[in-house]
Design goal:
Strand content: 15-25%
Helix content: 10-25%
Number of helices: 12
Distance between the termini: 55 Å
Oligomer: single chain
Largest sheet: 14 strands, mixed
Shape: globular
Length: 587
């Protein structure tokens, strides 16, 4: 193996920038995969002014460091003392968008004043939140470090169309210029998180994972005693470092690190190091999670159109498992149910909106515990549901949105497979035999009368065109499983985030990916999470819309918060002279 040409393990210090100047605009972060496509297209649009001067380079997830000759490696690294060696890196698809900046070119940009650079890695919402808030106490400032290794004489040449579904790389087939890495400055740190659940919810789920299975854990103070939850059992002797959550090898494998963080005060591992404060949470828009089933070639799956909240909850706690538990299905078969990793934002939104709602009081980890409070199976592959299909109905851990779509579409063992995942045009573009279900009769994507079960924009013959997606049922407040998409930032990312929010508002090519913030009719009731600051508020506005006149800053958890109309909250604030909005309502 050739020696690395460039090996840069970088740690960002806001007050010790070397090549980043205040005349540059730099965005460095990652998190939710639900935001990857939108942020990639918006970033390219920003740097491509005037037209023809923008540059975009993307690559799929890299996992080997040092990489093979001719390849690269990218990661965000948790630098805190105590995080296990060899388990510090988080990897995912990544994009770099930059401008040529006057007399430069894409391969040799002018990185001086006026230079723009946007870098985002598709990770997971909780990883994004954690990477934003951690502090290793070295004086370099908060955040994960950006690790880059451009290896070999050729570098990684991107010959594919790229990772942004609506925008090919520009120009195609080039190496990532070393100048782009240099332009991030000495020791750059992660300073913007993309997330589909709020930092408060990400922190609670992390603490729940670090709590023994048989230990009660309160979430909402107003339901304390009636809505206490149980830990998930990934704790170890170290209270801040958990056992990694593994994915089933037949459904994508992989692992998810369980490391603690704080959103106020000091870091829980480096206890004298302050976490970012103040920080800002900016809403981009609203996006639904789909309930998906496959393969469509299966006789039972082909009959599936709708699922009740009750049936969905019982499927995911292991009490039901037959295809005929769905209305209108006459072909009886056992089903498999794919379960995301518990710290995922996708998992969090689904968990508290359906099985672990105040209506059903159950959960996706039901039965995956020993009497001593430890995890029964890691990776989870629980044969559940008694009856004629006993032993052939399974709840199976599958890590990442990509794996959920892939293995619902493929159904590896022949049985019908159900999963849940955030909708996006990029996520569904390659599906060939997947259906999505209405929930309680509500289609989250299409106008009334257009539903035929096939995923819009997919490769399935007869699938509705992507242009038909208007989120009518979701934006009317009738569909329960959805979340606001957000960016978490502080002063380091203020300019870049403001630019991106404007660019996202103006996106046309991805207008069917989410409800833009200025067009949202819906919001979630927020609530204080036990053990976190008592500052819950629904916020003052959503984009250009008033949510609460002179309202307090948005704060508190909202995963599983009751869906309200924005106008409802605005009226509550004005009618009762309130500045926090209608709080403490959950599904």
């Amino acid at each position: 193996m050739k020696a690395a040409k460039y090996l840069i393990t970088l740690a960002f210090a806001f007050f010790s920038l070397t090549s980043i100047t205040y005349a540059q605009t730099v965005f460095l972060g990652g998190g939710s995969s639900a935001l990857f496509q939108e942020l990639g297209q918006a970033s390219y649009n920003l740097v491509n002014v005037p037209a023809g001067t923008g540059c975009l380079w993307t690559t799929a997830k890299t996992t080997t460091n040092p990489p093979p000759s001719g390849s690269d490696y990218f990661a965000f690294t948790d630098p805190r003392t105590g995080v296990p060696a060899g388990q510090t890196d988080e990897n995912g698809n990544i994009f770099f968008a930059w401008n040529q900046n006057g007399g430069g070119s894409c391969t040799t940009p002018n990185t001086g004043a006026g230079f723009q650079l946007y870098v985002y890695m598709s990770l997971d919402s909780t990883v994004g939140d954690r990477c934003f808030f951690i502090n290793d106490g070295t004086g370099h400032g908060p955040g994960c470090t950006f690790t880059s290794n451009l290896n070999g004489t050729s570098g990684q040449v991107d010959t594919a169309v790229g990772q942004i579904s609506t925008q090919n790389d520009v120009p195609a087939g080039i190496q990532l210029p070393a100048a782009i890495i240099t332009a991030l400055g000495a020791n750059p740190r992660f300073f913007v998180a993309g997330t589909d659940h709020r930092p408060e919810d990400a922190l609670f789920n992390t603490q729940r994972a670090l709590t023994a299975c048989n230990v009660s854990l309160a979430r909402q103070f107003f339901n304390d005693g009636t809505y206490d939850l149980l830990g998930w059992g990934y704790q170890t002797l170290n209270p801040n470092i958990g056992t990694a959550i593994s994915g089933d090898a037949s459904f994508g494998g992989g692992s998810f690190h369980v490391y603690n963080f704080n959103i106020t005060g000091n870091d829980p591992i480096n206890t004298t190091a302050a976490v970012p404060s103040p920080y800002t949470v900016s809403t981009i828009g609203a996006q639904p999670e789909l309930i998906i089933v496959g393969p469509n070639t299966d006789g039972a799956v082909a009959q599936m159109t709708d699922i009740l909240n009750y049936t969905l909850a019982q499927f995911y706690d292991g009490e039901l498992g037959r295809t005929t538990d769905l209305f209108g299905v006459t072909v009886a078969e056992p089903m498999n149910f794919l379960v995301r990793e518990p710290l995922s934002g996708t998992y969090s939104v689904f968990e508290y909106s359906n099985p672990q709602s105040t209506q059903f009081h159950t959960g996706q980890e039901t039965g995956n515990c020993t009497s001593t409070g430890a995890v029964l199976q890691n990776p989870m592959h629980l044969a559940t549901a008694p009856g004629i299909f006993s032993g052939t109905v399974n709840r199976i851990r599958s890590i990442g949105t990509g794996n959920i779509y892939k293995f619902v579409d493929a159904a590896p063992n022949g049985n019908p497979v159900m999963g849940y995942a955030f909708w996006s045009a990029g996520n569904v573009a390659k599906l060939t035999q997947t259906r999505y279900l209405k929930l309680n009769g509500i289609d989250p994507l299409l106008p009334a009368g257009q539903y035929n079960g096939l995923v819009p924009g997919s490769l399935e013959s007869g699938a509705p065109p992507l242009a038909n997606v208007n989120f009518a049922g979701l934006n009317a407040g009738d569909y329960a499983i959805w979340s606001a998409l957000r960016l978490v930032s502080d002063s380091r990312g203020a300019t870049a985030v403001a630019n991106l929010l404007t660019a996202l508002d103006n996106l046309t090519v991805l207008q069917n990916d989410y409800i833009k913030r200025n067009n949202m009719n819906i919001w979630h009731s927020h609530f204080q999470i036990v053990g976190q600051p008592a500052n819950a508020s629904n916020g003052p506005s959503v984009g250009t819309q008033t949510l609460c006149a002179s309202g307090a800053v948005e704060a508190g958890g909202d995963a599983g918060g009751s869906t309200m109309l924005i106008i409802n909250n605005a009226h509550f604030c004005s009618d009762f002279g309130d500045t926090h909005g209608r709080l403490n309502l959950t599904f």
